[in-house]
Amino acid sequence: MFKFLKGVVGGSGTGLKDLPYNIGDPYPSAWGSWSHFRGTTKDDGSPVSIFSLSGSNPQDGHLAAGRNGVKRLRTVRHPNILSFLHSTEVEAIDGSSTKVTIYIVTEPVMPLSEKIKELGLEGAQRDEYYAWGLHQIAKAVSFLNNDCKLVHGNVCLASVVVTQTLDWKLHAFDVLSEYDGTNGTATGPMLQYEWLVGSQYKPMELAKSDWATIRKSPPWAIDSWGLGCLIYEIFSGMKLGKTEELRNTASIPKSLLPDYQRLLSSMPSRRLNTSKLIENSEYFQNKLVDTIHFMEILSLKDSVEKDTFFRKLPNLAEQLPRQIVLKKLLPLLASALEFGSAAAPALTALLKMGSWLSVEEFTLKVLPTIVKLFASNDRAVRVALLQHIDQYGESLSAQVVDEQVYPHVATGFADTSAFLRELTLKSMLILAPKLSQRTMSGSLLKYLSKLQVDEEPAIRTNTTILLGNIASYLNEGTRKRVLINAFTVRALRDTFSPARAAGVMALCATSSYYDMTEIATRILPNIVVLTIDPDSDVRSKAFQAVDQFLQIVKQYNEKSNAGDSAGTGSLGISSMPGNASLLGWAMSSLTLKGKASDQAPLTAANSVTSAATTTSTASSGLIETPSTAPVHRVSSSTDFADQPMPPSPTSTDGWGEIENGIHEEQDSDKDGWDDIEPLEETKPSPALANIQAAQKRPVSQPVSQPKPQATTSVRPKSTVKVTKDEDDDLWGSIAVPPPKSASKPLNVKTAGAVNDDDDPWAAIAAPPPTTKAKPLSAGRGRGAKPAAPKLGAQRMNRTSSSGM
Prior knowledge:
Layout: H1 2-12, E1 21-26, E2 35-41, E3 47-55, H2 61-75, E4 84-94, E5 97-106, E6 109-111, H3 112-119, H4 123-147, E7 150-151, E8 160-163, E9 168-170, E10 177-178, H5 204-207, H6 211-216, H7 221-236, H8 257-263, H9 274-280, H10 287-296, H11 303-319, H12 322-338, H13 346-354, H14 359-365, H15 367-373, H16 379-387, H17 389-392, H18 398-409, H19 418-431, H20 437-451, H21 457-470, H22 476-490, H23 497-509, H24 516-529, H25 536-561, H26 582-590, H27 601-607, E11 615-616, E12 623-624, H28 628-634, H29 686-695, H30 740-753, H31 774-778, H32 787-801
Antiparallel strand pairs: 1-2, 2-3, 3-5, 4-5, 6-8, 7-10, 8-9, 11-12
Helix pairs in contact: 4-7, 4-9, 10-12, 11-13, 12-13, 12-15, 16-19, 19-21, 21-23, 21-26, 22-23, 23-25, 24-25
């Protein structure tokens, strides 16, 4: 038979060329005279099963029965009956004889006997799987007998096949006929092709061809007997040889034994209806059957039932047969999540089941569902996705993250829920390395610039930590523009002490990206201020950072003295403290959750878990520094306004008045850290400082940026940007404060003597003459000198009269 099929595939047959399927290798067993082959579609290569039946005589009884089976399989549809796809009949001339072959193409299945050997289940797991399979076949038989009034006629092990999802399905419909017990005049055989049924599977009345008794029996009598034969074969592990073997019940489970005996009753009228078997049998009440049944009718359950079920499912899945969970439950769960019938807790169960798959299977079966879920508007689903992103984030490709995942995740940056904003921020630790430079610079950094002035202290802290982590993924130009500005201008000035500590640690961790000029003029001056911070943890980290950067400068100086100019641009310090353990530092910090609602140091210190002071990067191994002590110290009556500390980024440093929002700037290439001016490299002389101060005095206040509140900080270097092309710059209103000694006398003088309406150059006008102005006011008759003012007055009057 197989040789003949190979010849047909090779082109000897004329009709098979139109079959849109490829015939593969055969299975070792099949029902009756049929042969069962693996197959694939010619279009996309998807798997199918192909059944074939051949005969040399077109009028052969086997072919007639086969045609009956094709007709019945095409018209009878049920979830537990084999799905029909295609059929054809081919005639091939072999010498002087003609061979006719019938082909049936169905969904991909394999014989039950082969699948049982492949699974190799034992004990309770085997019984649970058999219970599930028998439950499915019983539903199929009940559908035929009770709903369709049809008789299958040969239910047995060979007539059951198993799908790729391990579902049992009934096929072999060659003998299937209508039940005509209500027809009192019928005298012929009710089953036209009953001779195809093996004698060991025939009940007594069928073996005797007692059609009168059969017609008086209920419709399920013959198939209930067949179901009993199937139960015996699967539990005994042997094919039924003769009817007497059915009396051997040693292998039948005790909970199923009473129903087994009623199925095989010698009196047809007393045989158990398969529908009653499904409803009443204790054997079918087990965890696997209940779980799959719940999943199949999930849309009918209310939200409370769903939530309870999915919370128990992860632990329940560990107790079920692993292959059934992966091949049956996992697809059901993925489909339920994808189409919205499953609750958010189902994602936990999906990921747990997915962890039992190989990397390739996880990518094929789980990731597509997860990617689709990112587009969900359900906030609970979004939270669940972000909470478990560490379990699947590494499996996402860079293209999928950049094009499909990130656009949906980014909406969480501006969410009204602080918890969701923080989860979105933390997810970037895994997603950012997979983003393109365009997305990172054009979108991500804009959101991070917003989050650095978020109302939640923990979010501000974690933003600084995240920037320290993703610094290596930024290009050199972006790093130079963003890092120092973000860490010194914002993080080191934050009123929340863990945020300041995070800024110090981030500077240390990214120290290899700064050149000597930046370290000496911008980093060290800002860190030194924190050595007198009111928080002891910040002070200790500041001292460590000062030591680290001073060591870098000393190394640079030693190389310069030795004539080594190779490293004058930047000094790589991969061996310096703070770089060796960056990932560990960031991970331990990001896993702490802060949920404070008040940005004041008093409330923030008590309500927010420190997200940045848990670990220290002062050495190559992490130094654990408890954050509770400094937090309690901050929560005392210390007033930050009395400290020599720049104002908070959320209060008076100008970051609260960012004009252009994130959405209005999507077409801009700026990322929020542009145009922050560095500290002056040289200290101006007093005279030059006076001139510069007058030049910088605004004649009128810009409309787009309100005047900041009064602070104790002096900022003579601040420059107000009012040019239209730079109006979208989020960072233009901030300047780094210079040393106070140079600007203090100037500010005192300016504040007391100059108003907004006065001459802006009065502060640098030439000093008045030492003599008094008495001659000018005493008299006007001293020659030509008094005449000058008089003439001037006449000239002014003349000008006014001319209408100028």
